């Protein structure tokens, strides 16, 4: 029998390639269907299906907007649950930059607006101790 796991549960919501690319774009400020489609390269059908799934899961929400002289349309914004995925996407980007970027280097750089330093995902315990990327210093407790 498979182990019950929060990682597996989270992957049912955000584990699809297109879902992660959609979330990347919404984090970058791309919120309209056509713009998300152009940025990700997803077909209209796939994009619509993934946007619905992310909306139903409470990760993004549809919000009405109206450009001057145009009809009311909808855009997609992160919910609080969606915003909490930023460290996950940052960690994935950081891993890809380290292990998959070509000689030209990473295609994007994310920096702290206030000081300009690169943003890094790090593991910390509740007391603020930084943990190594090696997995050492971590103990897993099975609750069920």
Termini separation comes to 14 Å
Number of distinct beta strands: 4
Strand order of the largest sheet: 1-2
Number of spatially distinct domains? 1
Quote the beta fraction.
Answer: 5-15%
From the spread of the alpha carbons, the general shape counts as globular
**Broad structural category:** alpha+beta
Mean pLDDT: 93
Question: How would you describe this protein?
Answer:
With 144 residues, this protein is α+β, with helices and mostly antiparallel strands. The chain has one domain: Arc Repressor Mutant, subunit A. The protein is 41% helix and 11% strand. It has six helices and four strands. The protein has helices at residues 6-14, 17-27, 33-40, 44-56, 80-83, 86-99, and strands spanning 60-65, 73-78, 123-124, 130-131. The protein has a two-stranded antiparallel ribbon. Strands 3-4 form a two-stranded antiparallel ribbon. The radius of gyration is 18 Å and the shape is globular. It starts with 5 loop residues before the first helix and ends in a 13-residue tail after the last strand. The mean pLDDT is 93.
């Amino acid at each position: 029998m498979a182990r019950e796991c929060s990682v597996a549960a989270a992957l049912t919501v955000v584990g699809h390639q297109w879902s992660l690319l959609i979330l990347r774009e919404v984090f970058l400020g791309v919120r309209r269907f056509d713009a998300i489609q152009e940025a990700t390269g997803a077909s209209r059908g796939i994009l619509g299906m993934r946007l619905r799934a992310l909306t139903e899961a409470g990760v993004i929400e549809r919000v009405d907007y109206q450009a001057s002289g145009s009809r009311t349309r909808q855009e997609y914004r992160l919910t609080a649950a969606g915003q909490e995925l930023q460290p996950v996407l940052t960690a994935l980007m950081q891993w890809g930059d380290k292990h998959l970027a070509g000689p030209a280097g990473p295609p994007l750089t994310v920096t702290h607006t206030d000081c300009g330093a690169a943003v890094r995902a790090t593991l910390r315990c509740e007391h603020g101790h930084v943990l190594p990327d090696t997995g050492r210093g971590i103990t897993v407790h099975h609750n069920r």
